């Protein structure tokens, strides 16, 4: 897997945009076996994006064109930056692996143990 961040100035929005996407080094069929989550968090704020990775053969530009990526502007980046640095947490899971659920998604009576 590889992840890529691109910056682009969008004259229609008159602001700099940031894009992040995860690509699988393999075919689209292989990529369909995974899911990834990108998450920004700081100062009691959280922004996340979850999707199927793109094949390396599809390219980052295609994902951005299709809006199939995490996209945010400079103002949002500043909300999550710490000392001028912006960190993105990346989680990649194989779909055939059991998925852990967030506590807020659990129904009464559901328990998960490590």
From TrEMBL:
UniProt EC number: 2.3.2.27
InterPro entries from the UniProt entry: 7-in-absentia-prot_TRAF-dom, SINA-like_animal, TRAF-like
GO BP of this protein: proteasome-mediated ubiquitin-dependent protein catabolic process
GO MF entries: ubiquitin conjugating enzyme binding; ubiquitin protein ligase activity; zinc ion binding
Tagged with keyword Transmembrane helix: no
Superkingdom assignment: Eukaryota
Record key words, sorted: Metal-binding, Ubl conjugation pathway, Zinc, Zinc-finger
Keyword Transmembrane among record annotations: no
EC top class named in words: transferase
SUPFAM superfamilies listed in its UniProt record: TRAF domain-like
Catalytic activity: S-ubiquitinyl-[E2 ubiquitin-conjugating enzyme]-L-cysteine + [acceptor protein]-L-lysine = [E2 ubiquitin-conjugating enzyme]-L-cysteine + N(6)-ubiquitinyl-[acceptor protein]-L-lysine
Domain Seven-in-absentia protein TRAF-like: 8-91
Biological or metabolic pathway of the protein: Protein modification; protein ubiquitination
This protein's GO CC annotations: cytoplasm
Family membership: Belongs to the SINA (Seven in absentia) family.
Domain remark from Swiss-Prot or TrEMBL: The SBD domain (substrate-binding domain) mediates the interaction with substrate proteins. It is related to the TRAF family. The RING-type zinc finger domain is essential for ubiquitin ligase activity.
Its job: E3 ubiquitin-protein ligase that mediates ubiquitination and subsequent proteasomal degradation of target proteins. E3 ubiquitin ligases accept ubiquitin from an E2 ubiquitin-conjugating enzyme in the form of a thioester and then directly transfers the ubiquitin to targeted substrates.
Protein name: E3 ubiquitin-protein ligase
Organism: Caenorhabditis japonica
Lineage of source species: Eukaryota, Metazoa, Ecdysozoa, Nematoda, Chromadorea
């Amino acid at each position: 897997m590889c992840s890529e961040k691109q910056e682009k100035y969008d004259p229609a929005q008159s602001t700099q945009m940031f894009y992040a996407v995860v690509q699988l080094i393999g075919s689209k069929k292989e990529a369909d076996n995974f899911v990834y989550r990108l998450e920004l968090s700081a100062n009691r704020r959280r922004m996340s994006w979850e999707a199927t990775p793109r094949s390396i053969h599809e390219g980052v530009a295609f994902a951005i064109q299709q809006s199939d990526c995490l996209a945010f502007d400079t103002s949002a980046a500043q909300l999550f930056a710490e000392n001028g640095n912006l960190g993105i947490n990346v989680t990649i899971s194989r779909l055939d692996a059991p998925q852990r659920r967030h506590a807020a998604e659990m129904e009464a009576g559901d328990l998960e143990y490590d």
